[in-house]
Amino acid sequence: MTDHELIYDWNSVEKVAPLSPKRRIQFLDETLRDGIQSPSVVDPSIDDKLRLVELANDLGIDTMDIGLPGAGKRAVEDVTIIAEHIKQQRLKVKPSCAARTHVNDVQAVIDISQKVGIEIEVLAFIGSSPIRQYAENWDLPKMLELTATAIDLARKYNLPVGFVTEDTTRSRPEILTKMFTTAVEHGASRLVVCDTVGHATPDGIKNLLKFTRNTLDGLGRHDVGIDWHGHNDRGFGVVNSIFAIEYGADRIHGTALGIGERVGNAALDQILMNLKLLGELPDHDLTKLVLWCKTASQATRVPIHPQYPLAGSDAFRTATGVHAAAIIKAEKKGDAWLADRIYSGVPAGMFGKGQEIEIGHYSGESNVVYWLRKRGHEPTPELVAAVLGAAKRGNRVLSDDEINAVIKAPR
User: How many angstroms separate the Cα of 3 from the Cα of each of 16, 114, 280, 388?
Assistant: First the structure.
């Protein structure tokens, strides 16, 4: 039977066109800037940061925010080393740096760019919502002045600028119109639309991105890109990013494992996984996606929950007898494609992993036979009964050591 006969895909019933027609979707990794602003993370060592940059490059991620040099001496040192590494290793991933719309922050990026001899995109940010204006005592003329001055300085040194309106999803359209217009007229090549506090729903994204595109069309600037930068406060981080692509964004931000302030950013690993499954990334090799997640976890000391999608230890494990039996039957047919999908919506092999069958209190004999054969043990009836009996007396999955103890025990 064909793949299409075995799985009916409701996800594509009314889908007559790709998410991103005529547009190449890019990705910007915020792990080393927004990600490490989380109060629960450890700022990675420079060696770990370089490894994360290399893995992002291997995954085909286009741009990486390598830090906020305006934050201080260590930030300047790390950003400089990362920029030098990207240049020396001739990596395809492009560096960017966050900067407040303040001349000192922008100048810090310029200085590193000049020293290393590499182009660094300036992600110049300023709050744009009424609540931010009220709290900061900002007025619109001041905001427009800061925007113009910062962008002018970066463009003086021919650095590309992404203009970041913080809290865009709670900002008034008349304010955004003036800020977007000022930014584009002074040379910004991208508008970064931000859901800074995770406020947006998919309907909000549709309205906001339509407004942003109409503003650019009105300015005759079809060449200016639109970024989506989302947070996960409502649990919409990943799904909002996918809707943002459908509604017109052409570069999506995220972090490894979704680390970031409060409950985190949109999880870029999950975004990439889902777009791969939707057929949007035919040229991206994502077999190192799990390694990237594990490297980020170790570098930042953020543990991966066992049930985290793809990278979690339980993502492709089962100890349930019915599930295991179905996987085993598929493997006996000699059909790896079938075995990887019979009880999994995410094919493990596509991302460098494999299905795992464990033994626990919900297991059957098939689990035990499979486990023993995989490890070179003859599944005699006596041994199978002993292992299964040990599992049924418990209330969880047996560890390898516990099973091996049963195997070695005299009978």
Answer: 19, 53, 18, 35
What pTM, to 2 d.p., does this model score?
Answer: 0.89
Tell me the two tokens of residue 56.
């992002």
- On whether the CB atoms of residues 224 and 190 are closer than 8 A, the answer is yes
- Range 17-300: architecture per CATH: Alpha-Beta Barrel (3.20)
**So where are the chain's domains?**
17-300, 317-408
- Tell me which amino acid residue 316 is: F
- Residue 375: which residues within 8 A CB-CB, separation 6 or more? none
Which residues, other chains included, contact 140 with Cβ-Cβ below 8 Å and sequence gap of 6+? 133, 175, 178
SS (H, E, C) 110-174: HHHHHHHCCCCEEEEEEECCHHHHHHHCCCHHHHHHHHHHHHHHHHHCCCCEEEEEECHHHCCHH
Residue 148: how many other CB atoms lie within 10 Å: 16
Distance from the Cα of residue 17 to its chain's centroid: 24
Question: Closest by alpha carbon to 358, among 343, 368, 347?
Answer: 368
Residues in the chain: 411
- Parallel/antiparallel/unpaired status of strands 94-100 and 121-127: parallel
Strand partners, 252: 27, 228
Cβ burial 326-350 (10 Å sphere, 16+ → b, else e): bbbebbeeeeeebbbbbbbebbbbb
Q: Are 254 and 63 in contact (CB under 8 A)?
A: no
CB 109 within 8 A of CB 97: yes
- DSSP letter at 251? E
Per-residue pLDDT of the chain (411 residues; tens, 9 = 90+): 556 565 555 555 554 445 555 568 999 999 999 999 999 999 999 999 999 999 999 999 999 999 999 999 999 999 999 999 999 999 999 999 999 999 999 999 999 999 999 999 999 999 988 888 888 888 999 999 999 999 999 999 999 999 999 999 999 999 999 999 999 999 999 999 999 999 999 999 999 999 999 999 999 999 999 999 999 999 999 999 999 999 999 999 999 999 999 999 999 999 999 999 988 888 889 999 999 999 999 999 999 999 999 999 989 888 787 887 888 887 787 778 877 788 788 888 888 888 888 889 998 888 888 888 888 999 899 998 998 898 899 999 989 999 898 888 887
